[in-house]
Amino acid sequence: MLRMLPILLLLTACTGTPSTVQPVTPFELEPYLGQWHEIARLDHRFERGLSEVTAHYSMRDDGGVRVLNRGYHAGKDRWRESEGRAYFQGDNNTGQLKVSFFGPFFASYNIAKLEPDYSMALVVGHNLNYAWILARTPTPSADNCLRYQQKAAAIGVETEDLIWLSDCLPTASH
Fold first, then answer.
1. For 14-39, how does the pLDDT look when each residue is reduced to its tens digit (9 = 90+)?
2. Would I find Nucleotide-binding among this entry's keywords (predicted)?
3. Taking 90 as the threshold, does the pLDDT of residue 154 lie above it?
């Protein structure tokens, strides 16, 4: 059993919530499903070079969520897709899920801010090195983008490192 402990710790290490983040509650999965556009993100190798990034969420037969991420890589002149699965980490009334794109390895998907009409969201991972601003449209208003950038900064995200994929660049950051 002691030999399994490092493996168990590795498998659960990426499913926490940053101490500055309180996942949204109440949360309803049904209105969250559907297409989202990536408006801004922190840089990571798995999305490097991608534009026009979308995430589509739908129900799985096992009660989880099917996650289909898609983005265009201009340098390679092709689209990239990645399919994963997500499940609630706690109760179904809190925007705190875990997502996996390969094998038994899960990462946190913490919804830190969400519009009442589910039109825009701020998502962070197990730490603040993973952050995304998502919207239902590819070009939300500059005011909304600024509010989400400010929320990200307030919880400790390095917002000067955000890569903006949308035309809604907040005026306060540039």
1. 778 999 999 999 999 999 999 999 99
2. no
3. yes
